[in-house]
Amino acid sequence: MGIKVKDKDFIKTYRTLCAEERLNLMFDNYNEFPKIIRKMEVKTKYCIKSDKEYARSRSRGELGVRVQGSGTSDPTFDEASTNIMIDEAFEKGKADRGILSGLENAGKYEADIRIIGIMRMDYELLTEIIEGLGDDVSWMKEYLTKKKMLKEIASDRGISYETIKHRAYELRCDIREEIVECLEMNCRGGM
Q1: 0.70 surpassed by pTM
Q2: Using alpha carbons only, what angle is made at residue 81 by residues 102 and 63, rounded to the nearest 5 degrees?
């Protein structure tokens, strides 16, 4: 039907899609989309923290074996503050340079944090639009989240398949009309 991608390619793929393609991707992965966003966020956090630890070890001249030093460093505090700064970056959709300073992949992480924030905003907007569908919201959510077939929905509602199919098409067009302009704003400049 539409675009399906493997998780490891999701951020890269989403970044390159136009507004229409992003909408289709969200429709096709509607139920899984929040989980995918969360997974991409956790993976990116993990990579940032690993790279930060590697950079710290390298700057101290460590060979990979952690040894208690005589400094006044507080590794627990350092990790907690790093976690807080990374969480804030994902909340804002923008990383402060301090959190990524000294990392070889700082530009990639910054771009990934930004696109994950955009993915979250796009999905929240789509969800709000779907919630505003009135009488159609319940069956549309069944169609999107439970992958319930339109024939089943038509049977449950006591209407013809052609009627529900036409209504689903109309709703999709209405949703598209309402959201695409907003999605286009986040597609400028290859975001």
Answers
A1: yes
A2: 50
